[in-house]
Amino acid sequence: MEVDVLTIYPREFYLKQLRPFYDSDLIKVITGIRRCGKSCLMQSVALELKSKGVAEKDIVFLNLDKRGYKNIVTPNALEKAIDAKIVDEDFKYIFIDEIQNVEGFEPVINAYREEGNCSIFITGSNSYLLSGELVTKLTGRYVQIDMHTLSFDEFLSMKRFLGIELHDNRIEFDEYLTRGGFPKVLEFSDVDVKFKYISEIVAQVFDKDIYARCKIKNRIAFDKVMTYLINNFGSRINLQSLENYFRSALQTPIKKETLRHYIDILNSARILYKCPRFDMKSRRSLMGESKYYLADTGIYFARNIDGRINYGPVLENIVYNYLLNRGYSMSVGQIGSLECDFIARKQNEYFYIQVAMTIADPSTEEREYRALSAAKDHYPRYLFTLDTLLQKRDGVKHVNLIDFIAEGRELV
User: Fold this and answer.
1) Are 41 and 14 contacting, i.e. CB atoms less than 8 angstroms apart?
2) What share of the chain is helix, strand, coil (3-state, %, to 5)?
3) For 187-214, how does the pLDDT look when each residue is reduced to its tens digit (9 = 90+)?
4) Is 135 helix (H, G, I), strand (E, B) or coil?
5) Which of 5, 22, 120, 177 has the largest count of CB atoms under 10 Å?
């Protein structure tokens, strides 16, 4: 495996999750939207293994999207390709990128796992890897690492790694909001090129992960639904209201069942993430409206000519992705008759969260504190804003969002 060490930024957050399983017989499944860095993560693991003394011959690396491997589309061809790289009986580390190119790969991978003389890492299209085939055929035999685009702290760290000039964190944050966190975007200086690259990523997701694998009879209707959801990320979505909107406003009748199917597809492809409503009193998820957030805010700005920032949903999206990435379950919070932006949950701990650009206006301050003040239990309450002068009120932790994420902090 020939890799330029200087070009592979080590995503330490994910490496920490993988290290306990380096020598485990559990299959390591790395998922995430296309171009979020899954291939580079596997290369980082391989480089780390080599630095610890693992011989080159004991690292088997196949990228099934690269020239020379694109003809590997059957289980037999996959097995032959792996065997061709195994030269002795020593313990092997097998890395297979874009494994969804091989339909029915699961029995082959599991057969190598059963032999017990290797550690296996795979990545691929989420719409396939997260479907029933993997869950059914490899139940209990794999561990999943869900990977995201760069968080803001990683964005800054990768810039330092690549030797890119850094400005004040406020300036960098403005760039991060609109350009997003796809790692390769940092290699381009021209804004139009950055957005063109992101648009091409989204096109690849549709062509390779959605249209090639999912049954979509009406692509025009699907595209309209996708465009609506991307343009209205962070808004409340109700299937009945959505059905009415498409029928009356767009003259495009789409049944609720079809809408649900389309949304599930976009979730599986990791274009969108669903954030359901959660009632703190009953500790149960609520039916009906949900919110949907983008895998990366750059997706929205790459698809829209108007570059103005609506800070409400954008900042919510940043907070949602950051905490989801760190293992929190995220929901829209229901506290009696009031709603707070998020309930973050990890194990048995809950955190109430409000997000706003600023609370400089007294009416905004009252609105943001109202839901947090309604929470009468002992769980921590956070108010994230871009303010530099922070309020001390009612036991709420008023935190500058930029500083919090730039420092890679956790909820406490």
Assistant:
1) yes
2) 45, 20, 35
3) 999 999 999 999 999 999 988 888 888 8
4) helix
5) 120
